[in-house]
Amino acid sequence: MIDRTRPEPKPGVLDIAAYVPGKSKASGGSRLFKLSSNETPLGASHAAIEAYRDNAAALELYPDGGAVALREAIASVHGLNPANLVCGNGSDELLALLANTYLAPGDEAVFTEHAFLVYRIAVLAAGAKPVIVPETDLKADVDTMLSAVTDRTRLVFLANPNNPTGTYLPFDEVRRLHAALPPNVLLVIDAAYAEYVRRNDYESGIELVSTSQNVVMTRTFSKIYGLANLRLGWCYGPDHVIDALNRVRGPFNVTGPAIAAGIAAIRDRDFLENAVAHNEKWLPELTERLTALGLGVTPSVGNFILIHLPDVDGKRAPDADAYLLDRGIVVRRVENYGFPNSLRMSIGTDEANEAVIDALRSFLEKA
Ligand SMILES: *Cc1c(COP(=O)(O)O)cnc(C)c1O
Questions:
Q1: Best substitution site from 160, 222, 230, 337 to test ligand 1's pocket, by max atoms within 8 Å of Cβ?
Q2: Which of 138, 89, 36 is nearest to 346 (CA)?
Q3: Is residue 327 part of a domain?
Q4: Does residue 3 sit within a domain?
Q5: How far apart are alpha carbons 356 and 258 in whole angstroms?
Q6: pTM over 0.90
Q7: How many domains does the chain have?
Q8: Tens-place pLDDT, residues 95-108
């Protein structure tokens, strides 16, 4: 029934479960390790912080709506044409923009069961239909995704690597997915964690975008660059997609401080290398040491891991979460991603990672 007594959101909006951000507080003492949102434990580049501060002198001025200098900096680091980039208020904005630009009511968008929750929100908010397909071994399955494509499909979202699983598709699989898609279906590759991945068979998607007319890649400054608070992402796509996004986006969707900090951040290659090295040390170490405690750990290529708890009274994910919170450790419950008995932890500082291992050991040992 249509309620005519008050304004009603369009169909789809009230089917959205609002995104729940990672908690940022714990009940424990003064110590707090926030490992719930895949933020870097290393802060931001000093050059980026300085550029951000310098920008405070001109807060009354509108930013450059085209973010030209930032697009040029990104383009030069990645070997791209700046005309094929659009920047956004976080890559979340770009994902929503893609949905709003390409989906009309009745259209379908395909993604997998444990995919990043923002896709579902963006698709429903655009008035379209999410088509959610099963994964195999917590990985996107190209054949299953393809079998869900109909003549109503307009978008396919693939997070590579995916959050919260941390798994990835080798690039020949992504190519196979793309090759079998109809040319009017846009493949959106969300490569938010690309900088962390150290695998010979991984690619972020740049070459596929460059050589086709129906692929876009989104990237972010929120993760390895440590600028989550500034909200800055970018997307690389063919001319016609970039043209459409530029028509729909807000004219000043990226702020001046974000542009300035982003330029400095992407040029600070030492900062990036250090962040990669920290992750390279801890990703295998956490995986091994938590596995040795008897926990299940899904092999990850990102800066976070998905930990599976025993299906035993008192030892399940909500119990472990409460135990960690009491000790000032905030991780992420992931039941809304289809994992009722798992927790996702971001890789933290040395101290934070040791604290998690200690706490989970005593949690599992206690009577
Ligand atoms: C964190 C994350 C993003 C990035 O979001 P921003 O809006 O750029 O902060 C995008 N995709 C995935 C899969 C993520 O985990």
A1: 222
A2: 36
A3: yes
A4: no
A5: 33
A6: yes
A7: 2
A8: 999 999 999 999 99
